[in-house]
Amino acid sequence: MTCRKNVNSLTTEEKAAFISAIKLMKAELYAYVDDEDDPAHVRALYPLINNTYDKYVLDHYMAMNWATPGGWDWALDPMSPSLFMIRNGAHRGPAFLPWHRAFIRQFELDLDRLVPGVTLPYWDWAADAADPMNAAVWANDLMGGNGSGAGNFVQDGPFRADIWDIVVIDVGFRQLDLTNPQVRIDEDLVRRFGASIRAPNLPTQDHVDEIQAITPYDSADFDRVSTGYRAANEGRMALVSGNSPPLSNTHNLVHEWVGGSMLPGTSPNDPVFFLHHCFVDKLWADWQALHPTVPYVPVDSGSNDHLDGHRLNDTLFGLGTLVSETLDHHAMGYSYDTDTPPIVIPLNTTLVFNAIPVGSTAVRAATFNISPPSPDNSFCRELIFTITAGPTGTGFGTPDGDRVVVNTDSTNVAQVWFSYTATSVGSSGPETAQITCVQTGQAWSISLSATTIPKPTVATVLVLDKSGSMAWDAGDGRLRIEVLKDSAPVFVDLLGDEDGIGVVYFDSNATPGTSIAVAGALGTGSGRIAANEAIMDQPSSGGSTSIGAGIELASSELGDLTPSSYNHTAMVVLTDGRENRSPYISQLLDDGIINDSVFAIGLGTALQISPAALEALTGSTNGYVLMTGTLDTDDYFTLQKYFLQILSGVKNTEVVMDPEGWIQPARKIRIPFNLNEADITVDAILLTGDALPDVFDYMLETPSGKIIDPSIANASVELAFSASEHVQFYRMTLPTAVAGLEEREGQWHAVLNLNEKVFAKYLASLENDREKFNKVKTHGLRYSFNVHSSSDLRLRAQLEQATREPGGMITLSAQLTQYERPLDNGASIRAELERPNGTKVNLTLSEVEPGVFNVAFHAGSAGIYKVRVLAKGQSIQNNPFTREQLLSAAVWIGGDDPFPSSNTDGYDQKLCHLLMCLLEKDSIRSFLKRQKIDAEEVSECLKKACADNRRSKLRPEVTNNKELTDALVAFVKNPSLIVKWLRNAKNKS
């Protein structure tokens, strides 16, 4: 329902839209279509106009000159008392209010057609009567002011002289010949405030109060001198509040006070006409609410022919609308902002911000229930809540500003939000803010208090695969173990100073790498150094893949930490193979021993790793799994990005962006990135590949153009810079002071150069690798730039699969929130999907509810589907933002089969149990005896090899016997082949 507001309540944007719509209507072409049924005067005058706005001018002019009875009668002098006083199609009779209601509603709908959402405001001239010259309606951003100079032309505002051509069809003192109409063209808008001796002032509130009390609606003879509300509203009732002469009060008085273009029948030439008549209509709507049982008169349509166009069931002149269709303005689709308001009840007036970490911002809402009055369409659907006092205490704020507009068509709940930004440990408040509902006049006191706790820390154990397959080729020219060593240190380098880090290895068994210790200072902390040494110096690859053993050991080490030494605990598992040694993940989940968040990286294809088991593990612990698929030389940074993405999950931070590219000598690259008011701390991370660490000159440029280099960063309290073999990064707390200027939200830039001397040295070191030498010389050096933010503006995305078999659908869903509530500010989310065959496609997510987006795609072939989710939009305070997240899903034949467990061992355990079972069968023993093989000796060997003891000291040639795997398949196909294997097993034992 359209809501008509007081012109003084319009926002800057609403004013601009209203003016724009009027100008578009003035510019819109209008062509009269000749109709032989139209009266001659219509056919004569309408072709003279050429735009939609001027049609309304002529419509009003025609109605004002259509006398009842007698029709169009130019035989009389238009300015003579006899015609001036006569009732016409729109004035001096009962239809005055219905005609203008239908007329301005049509105008309003045309405005909305040209600029959707625009409505007519009303000018409450009674409220401005004390100082009419300075009323807000005459401001430059609305109607402009009074006329000046010899012609009293308007010189300011959007309709001022020389930019606004207005066609004035003004007969003045001249007669208008129906066969040859004479039309005077006056190009500029004219106003003469208070110049008429009959209208030195505007009507006052006393005048309004008096006419609003008058009944009936109208009376016989239903003309200019009738007694009743209509005549009083129109301004033709004698001695209203002592105001005389009777021709100039209320509605009429306003036309005369404005003067100029508002005086003749073409008064819509002045756009203020519509604001004025909107208030006249509002007065009628208010009168109807005050006198709901007083009927419209005259009712009869079978007599009183001299009242044509004014009776209840008549058609209004020139508008095609029945009088009866105008009596309920709500039914016509609009309300006024002062109509009966709803019932507003507060649900909470005490807001407590408990346990907010230092540097974080939290929000709480004062919530109000809205119940409609009866009938429920008797008020504007927009309610305005304003914060009229407070908050003033340290840390408290109003993230949505001090004005909240609620559309009750879509909700019956209003929420006014307050924020608290924690800066130091302790308590704040209580203090008081005040909220007022503009429409109801109600006011409520809101109590605010907060407690701040230290910034949370996390202890993480890296659980790293060192099974035999880690020595295999990764696909990009490096061994898998080399890819791990190039990538995992990035995770360690970027931990917080107070975070904990430890390392565990696993193959057939689990082995401690380094105990959990505080990371310490960037670059030099002892915990970081120990963890990175454990990554780089881990034992040689070999053995089976007991993922469960690594998780079990990591869980034990995290469980041994002193309670409350860290706020959270987590582990990051990297594996390149399927688990084939107990304990299995399923067993750990069944036993419920995992109390930490678990994240996982699968280095390989769906057939090489255990996607189902990893997804079950991470999904039950609030983590997630990322899978690489087959790597090639274009995927150099993939595993580093996965570790950074998982670091973001462990630390509950956001990935702002992560582009990559190539840089050549003598070329400067500036990479823009946006930070907003919700960002708290930021890591701007440059991954430098395998080049010499100091070949990159890396700086940041602030929104104001200041440059941050490593020396400036390390001399600042809010900034730090760190560099290691594969990464350089700046860490900053926002806001941060640079050259005396506070920098925060806005567009930042990463500025990259190559140190040409170091680059030349690096290039020379590649002389023996001509392929790489030529690539670097041609393209330069590759880099990846990542920005992570501890932020209250968050993207959370996930993939959901009903099946892991090929042919199913995968649903990608994502949520955007700011301060823990849906971000409904016109954001958009898309995704870059890479299929298993390497083809790529862009997906657009649809917003299904505020801040919630999704899209589904077909997974027709087996393999890893990699998804990069990218969000962009405006924050609550309309600052631009971006967010990214990496996801992956696996599809393979057999994907829905149960993953390995203690009952379904999967590989050597499953084979061992089957073979032991076979050796217990008489038929098998007889078969072996005929082949001269001692079944008991074979059984003894199998018992040793298949002992369910992950710390078995059996020789590698027994515990890692690949022939055992091959034998089962061979036996199923041809039992006689097992003889060969059993003989080999016996000989080796």
TrEMBL record:
Gene3D superfamilies: Di-copper center containing domain from catechol oxidase (1.10.1280.10), Immunoglobulins (2.60.40.10), von Willebrand factor, type A domain (3.40.50.410). Keywords: Copper, Metal-binding. It comes from the Bacteria. Pfam families: Filamin, Tyrosinase, VWA_2. Residues 459-647 form the VWFA domain. Belongs to the tyrosinase family. This is Tyrosinase family protein. The lineage of its organism: Bacteria, Pseudomonadati, Pseudomonadota, Gammaproteobacteria, Moraxellales.
